[in-house]
Design a protein that fits this description.
347 residues; alpha+beta; C8orf32 fold; 2 domains; 5-stranded mixed β-sheet; 5 helices; disordered N terminus
């Protein structure tokens, strides 16, 4: 999993590896969905076969405003202890894959960059581990069999997909969207397939502060004008949406950042947008708490009204938070657990 910070190489004591290779038997494989601040951006596949560990990353790649997929794969020869052959480093993902590593440090290797350095567990339980990888803090959660289920590193989260589970690639979700059933009119809604649970989005977050509609709309217009070029760029992945070109996430993050500088706290809405009768595609906008009660939803990307027949909220999250609930709902959508329907359709 990609390290977030680079630090100098340290000489580490000889601590038994217990790298996870013991439980990651030859011929085994697993897949994770990678999300950044709740937004699914790719998948990571791990496999171990005949002394060869393979790390495959398939993630959203944006070029000239168009979303596509970039695939990167690294195969490393490993010995019986899980260390890279002819070296003393443990592949980072293999170290975490099966079973919480013991407390202490090993030399780990980030698969894609090849960077090596200390990987340390500072707290360990039967189904959890916490520590640092190359200076970045992580939290890992395991099931009762010791299989890694979820990993959080900074704003990134990796969630395990069940074996054999059909899962759309996140880049496909951005490029093709989700079909909308039930015609072209009426409010949008998510309908669970089978007996799946429904979910609700709260109207407010506790930390949201009350504002006036005029001030909130004025800021939306300012953010809209600050991005001459509308389209996905690296600005969508910067905490404050910095840049002169950006997509919906950059607009929403810039709005939240400027509002925070004025002493106001808003909510970031993760959702779907339908334009001109097309499919529902991932979108982000903001929700503002109003003085005297109620809320106001604003789409600084287009300045179009946020309406039930065009915008469908999936989750409401703090702009600076990991948005774990949003990540779970995006994952359910990728699995096909829900359909997007119009209220005019009889369910």
């Amino acid at each position: 999993m990609k390290a977030l910070f680079a630090i100098a190489m340290l000489a580490l004591p000889g601590i038994p590896a217990s790298t996870g290779a013991e439980a990651a038997r030859s011929g085994s494989s697993v897949r994770f969905v990678f999300a950044w601040r709740g937004v699914p951006v790719g998948t990571v596949g791990l496999s171990l076969d005949a002394g060869r560990f393979t790390y495959t990353s398939r993630h959203l790649h944006v070029r000239d405003g168009h979303a596509g997929e970039r695939v990167r794969e690294v195969t490393l020869p490993v010995d019986a202890t899980g260390r890279v052959t002819a070296g003393d480093a443990v592949p980072q993902a293999l170290w975490l894959w099966r079973g919480p590593p013991p407390e202490g440090c090993v030399k780990g290797r980030e698969e894609l960059s090849g960077q090596e350095g200390p990987h340390c567990v500072t707290a360990r339980g039967p189904t959890s581990a916490e520590g640092t990888m190359l200076g970045a803090r992580f939290r890992a959660r395991y099931d009762d069999r010791g299989q890694l289920q979820a990993l959080e590193v900074g704003d990134s989260r990796f969630t395990r997909a069940a074996p054999g589970e059909r899962l759309r690639a996140p880049p496909e979700l951005f490029a093709d969207g989700v079909p909308v059933e039930g015609g072209t009119g009426g409010a949008l809604a998510l309908a669970p397939r089978g007996d799946g649970p429904s979910f609700t989005v709260p109207p407010r977050l506790p930390e949201m502060t009350e504002w006036t509609p005029a001030a909130a709309r004025a800021l939306s217009a300012k953010v809209h004008a600050a991005f001459p070029d509308k389209g996905p760029t690296a600005a969508d992945w910067r905490p404050g949406g910095e840049g002169e070109a950006g997509g919906c996430l950059a607009h929403a993050l810039r709005y939240a950042s400027l509002a925070r500088a004025r002493g106001q706290r808003v909510g970031l809405v993760h959702g779907l947008l339908v334009v001109d009768g097309g499919p529902a595609r991932p979108h982000a906008w903001v929700r503002v708490a109003l003085k005297g009660g109620g809320t106001l939803e604003l789409d600084p990307t287009s300045l179009d009204p946020v309406r039930p027949d065009t915008h469908l909220a999936l989750a409401l999250a703090p702009p600076e938070g990991p948005a774990l609930e949003a990540g779970e709902r995006w994952l359910a959508l990728l699995r096909g657990d829900y359909r997007v329907v119009r209220a005019t359709r009889t369910e």
